[in-house]
Amino acid sequence: MNERFDVIVTILELIGTAAFAASGALTAIKRRFDLFGVIIIGVTTAVGGGIMRDIVIGSHPVAAFRDPLAMSAAALISALVFAALAVKGDPGGKALKLYDTAMLMLDTIGLGIFTVTGITAAMRSGVSDNTFLLVFSGVITGVGGGVLRDIFVNKKPEIFVGNIYACASATGAAAFLLCYGMMSFMPACMVSLAVTFSLRLMSVKFGWNLPKIQIKARQERRIAATKENLINKKRSIDYEKVYYYHKP
Predict the structure, then answer these.
(1) Closest CA to 108 of 168, 148, 173, 191
(2) Distance of CA 135 to the CA centre of its chain
(3) Which of 122, 203, 229, 246 could bridge 164 with an S-S bond, Cβ 3.0-4.6 Å?
(4) Using one digit for the tens of pLDDT, what is the confidence trace for 179-220?
C-alpha cells in the first residue's frame, strides 16, 4: 500500500464520513432529537461500521480512536446540519420530501464508499487471502453505522425490512475484489461504487425487495375476529327488529 493509495483511501473515508454523518443527523432531527442527540447519532452513523469492522479483524485500538479526525469531522458536520435546519425552521411537507431524498442519496454514497474502505482496511490488517472476511469487512463497514443509527432512534434497521441495502453492499464488495485482481485500485473502486449505487437506487425506484412471508400478528387476527363478531351480532339484532316489527 503506497502513499498515494493511502491518500486516496483517506479522501474516500472523509467523503463517506461526511455523507453518513449528515444522514444520521437528518434522521435524528426528524425524530426531534436535541443538538447533543443529533451529534451522537451523526457520529455513530459515520464511525459505527468502522468500529465493528476493527473489532472483527482484531485491529486495536480501533481506527476511530487512534485517529479522531473522522469522529471530529462527523461531529462538526452533524452540528452544521442541525444549525442549518434550526435557522430554516420547522420544515413543511415539500421540504420533508427533499430531506428524504437527501437522506437516500447521502446514505447511498456512504454505503458505497465505506464498502470499499472497509475492504482496504481489512487488507491492511493482513487478511488479503481471506475473501469472505474481506467482503464481510466491506459490508459491516457499509451497513453497521446505519444499523446502530436505526436502533438508537427506535426504528427497525433498514437492512432487515427496506429495499435492497446490505445485498447492494455485498455485490459492490464482490465487484471490487473481482476487478482489483485485474486492474489498479481506482478503476476497481469506481466499478464497485457504480454497482453499489445502481443496485441501491434502482431498488428504491422500482421497489425491489427480498421475499417476505406475510404473517398476520395474533393481535390483528383477534381484532379482525372481534370486528366480524360485532358485525354478525348487529345483523342479528337488526333482523330481530325487522321480524318483530313485521310480525302479524
Answers:
(1) 168
(2) 17
(3) 203
(4) 988 888 889 999 999 999 999 999 988 888 888 777 665 666
Q: What is the pLDDT of residue 145?
A: 94
Cell of 190: 469506481
Whole-Å CA distances, 99 to 34, 91, 115: 18, 9, 24
Spatial separation of the C-alpha atoms in residues 52 and 48, rounded to whole Å: 6
Give residue 236's pLDDT: 64
Say how far apart CA 17 and CA 141 lie, in whole Å.
11
CA distance 117 to 173: 10
C-beta separation of 155 from 139 below 8 A: no
Residue 54's Cα: distance from chain center in Å?
A: 19
Distance (Å, rounded) from C-alpha 176 to C-alpha 191?
7
Q: Which amino acid is at 161?
A: V
Output the nine-digit C-alpha cell for 141.
463497514
